[in-house]
Amino acid sequence: MVARSLLDVRWTRAELLAYFSPLPVADWFNRNSPAVKSGEIVPEACDQELALALLQKHPLLIRRPLMEVDGKRHVGFDAAAVHAWIGLPGVAIEGDPEACRHDTGHHCQGHEDGHGHCGTDA
């Protein structure tokens, strides 16, 4: 396994689509992103083009984790789906594995900046 920060990659449309194309556009977004939680961005109102532009410009909006094993890609952490795919024997999953893992009061880089708009009047 190679862990990389989403912020360290300059994501192309093709790379994002390689992960996300089988999913509905709304499922491409990190539901724990402050811009999504606040309603600034409404994933269900985004079309593919706008979603790709937002994800490229603001990688913190990308749903995580992005996983690749033997050329097959998977988005998000559904323990049952990942176990069926690659196996997770004896792994206990606590809390929301797609959420920011920092202590309360910590601001992850980029959480406070504007992320663009999708389906809002703002």
Topology:
Layout: H1 13-20, H2 34-37, H3 48-57, E1 66-69, E2 72-75, H4 79-86
Antiparallel strand pairs: 1-2
Count of helix runs: 4
Gyration radius, in Å:
15 Å
CATH fold type of the domain at 10-86: Glutaredoxin
**Whole-number mean pLDDT:** 78
CATH architecture descriptor of the domain at 10-86: 3-Layer(aba) Sandwich
Tell me, what's the shape? globular
By secondary-structure content and strand pairing, the structural class works out as alpha+beta
Labels describing this entry:
122 residues, alpha+beta, 2 strands
Question: Concise description?
Answer:
This protein is of the alpha+beta class and 122 residues long.
Tell me about this structure.
This protein has 122 residues and is of the alpha+beta class. The chain has a domain at 10-86: Glutaredoxin, CATH 3.40.30. It contains 4 helices and 2 strands; from the N terminus they run αααββα. It has helices at residues 13-20, 34-37, 48-57, 79-86, and strands at residues 66-69, 72-75. It has a two-stranded antiparallel ribbon with strand order 1-2. Strand 1 (66-69) and strand 2 (72-75) form a beta hairpin. The termini are far apart. Residues 102-117 have low confidence and may be disordered.
